[in-house]
Automatic annotation (TrEMBL):
Assembly and binders: Homodimer.
Cofactor: Mg(2+)
Occurrences of domain Methyltransferase (ranges): 49-141
Pfam families to which the protein is assigned, alphabetical: AAA_26, Methyltransf_25
EC number: 6.3.3.3
One of the record's GO cellular component terms: cytoplasm
Molecular function GO labels: ATP binding; dethiobiotin synthase activity; magnesium ion binding
GO BP terms, alphabetized: biotin biosynthetic process
Binding annotation for ATP: G268, V269, G270, K271, T272, L273, E358, G359, A360, G361, P442, M443, L444
Compartments, record wording: Cytoplasm
Identification of the protein by name: ATP-dependent dethiobiotin synthetase BioD
Annotated function: Catalyzes a mechanistically unusual reaction, the ATP-dependent insertion of CO2 between the N7 and N8 nitrogen atoms of 7,8-diaminopelargonic acid (DAPA, also called 7,8-diammoniononanoate) to form a ureido ring.
Signal sequence residues: none
Organism listed in the record: Gluconacetobacter entanii
Length: 470
């Protein structure tokens, strides 16, 4: 399929009349895809959804019912089809309609779910397009597709072949070919279902294809009316004539990032020390997304590098660095900036090591208007290690932090306590917070690399902690 042929198809879809009445198979396929999505994305489900090739909104409706609080961006290449979706969901503030060619997406993401029902068969470069869409997924995000596959319209094709006529329909891929289209950033599977329709006549079948805008022949086809009449006559003489739609359903999940997000119950509770210990204990890499306060003390990246004795290759630069010792939002404002959360992207680390991500302050620290440190944790989809003081007041602060994390369904790997041993505080946090105390670190007289190496022996091995409970 060429780009010009694809746009010809888009214009035909735009001009299609009576689409909803004729698109019975598309409606069924959307429902079956929604069932697979529900299994792949159980409650609480995705927060941000991108739909590709929404048509008149069959799958959009299912997504709204399954995930009523999700923000849905419904896209299509055909303005007329998109307008029908916009009209259908006009009063829903959670649904945005956006004109877009799926093969050249102009949205930045990340999305927790990207879905498309019966549109991928029109892609010019299917593998490249699937790769571009998968790149818009959040860590552990899901790409769910349905498309026509090998064997569709078998009887209709047979009638063309029996008359020694070229069939105008495109050749669709088999499941093995589709499996090769998944990108290396995750893993996916394809399954197949067959939907069979028995039209009133062969002409009814052709008219319904035209009604849904799917009657554009392949570019090389010589569309002569005489040939179509012969096929219609032969099909109508076949008492067993039916139309089969072989539909492939694909579910792909992006690989989640490997690592932890280190947060604290307050500022100054020892997040940087803990980050250095974890980096040393787990032979990990380190990233501080937002750094403020460099006018008053060394940047945390340089401190962790020295304490954990990390080589430069395992250090990743912050997305933003600010002088004032304030929240990232206020520190950036002092320099006339507003932090764009979409620019805070997990750095690529090909080493396979876990990543220690150190936050700024606690879970409710502001990053930008309407975006808190908690939102960044949710977006990065890493399990969280909470750093807390062991002294008086820690129970309340720690349980509040844990409650906020659990409210967002962010997995908590455990808590690390800094300071004098406090058995009562430890017990209360474990019991009421339903969380594991990963380690207790004493106050250090000298914070240096040898001391960090000693504390690293107190931390459980990474291999035993990779699958925390939410």
């Amino acid at each position: 399929m060429t780009p010009s042929h694809k746009h010809r198809i888009a214009r035909r879809f735009d001009a299609a009349s009576g689409y909803d009445a004729a698109a019975r198979v598309q409606r069924i396929a959307a429902g079956h895809l929604a069932q697979r999505i529900e299994r792949a994305c159980p409650p609480p489900g995705p927060k941000r959804i991108l739909e590709v090739g929404c048509g008149t909104g069959f799958l959009t409706g299912h997504m709204r019912l399954l995930y009523p609080t999700a923000q849905i961006v419904a896209t299509d290449i055909a303005p007329g089809m998109l307008e029908q979706t916009r009209a259908r969901f006009r009063d829903d503030p959670h649904i945005t309609c956006h004109l877009m060619d799926a093969e050249q997406p102009d949205l930045t993401g990340p999305f927790d779910l990207i879905c498309s029902s019966m549109a991928a068969q029109w892609f010019v470069a299917r593998r490249d397009t699937i790769g571009r869409l998968a790149a818009l997924l959040s860590p552990a995000g899901v790409l769910a597709l349905s498309t026509l596959c090998e064997g569709s319209f078998a009887q209709w094709r047979d009638h063309y072949a029996a008359l020694d006529l070229p069939c105008p329909m495109a050749a669709y891929p088999d499941l093995a070919t589709l499996e090769q289209d998944w990108p290396q950033t995750g893993s996916g599977t394809w399954t197949r279902e067959t939907i069979v329709e028995v039209p009133q006549s062969a002409l009814t079948f052709v008219r319904e294809l035209r009604a849904i805008g799917a009657d554009v022949p392949v570019p090389t086809h010589d569309a002569r009316a005489e040939g179509l009449r012969r096929v219609l006559k032969r099909a109508d003489s076949d008492a067993t004539f039916s139309v089969n739609y072989n539909i492939a359903f694909g579910i792909f999940r992006r690989t989640p990032h490997s690592g932890v997000f280190v947060t604290g119950t307050d500022t100054g509770v020892g997040k940087t020390l803990v980050s250095a210990v974890l980096a040393r204990a787990w032979d990990a890499s380190y990233w501080k997304p937002l750094q403020s306060g460099i006018a008053d003390e060394p940047a945390d990246t340089s401190s962790v590098a020295a304490l954990a004795e990390l080589p430069p290759a395992r250090l990743h630069p912050p997305a933003g660095v600010y002088a004032a010792s304030l929240s990232p939002e206020d520190a950036a404002a002092c320099e006339g900036e507003v932090i764009d959360p979409d620019r805070i992207v997990m750095p690529h680390d090909s080493s396979g090591r876990p990543m220690i991500v150190e936050g700024a302050g606690g879970v409710m620290v502001p990053i930008s208007p309407g975006f808190l440190m908690l939102d960044l944790m949710e977006r990065l989809a890493l399990p969280v290690v909470v750093v807390a003081r062991s002294t008086l007041g820690t129970i309340n602060h720690t349980l509040l932090s844990l409650a906020m994390l659990r409210q967002r369904n962010i997995p908590v790997m455990g808590v690390i306590l800094n300071g004098p041993e406090n058995a009562c505080a430890r017990s209360a946090i474990e019991r009421h917070g339903k969380v594991r105390i990963l380690a207790e670190f004493p106050m250090l007289e000298d914070v240096n690399a040898p001391a960090i190496a000693q504390l690293a022996h107190r931390v459980p091995r990474w291999e035993t902690l990779r699958h925390p409970a939410a």
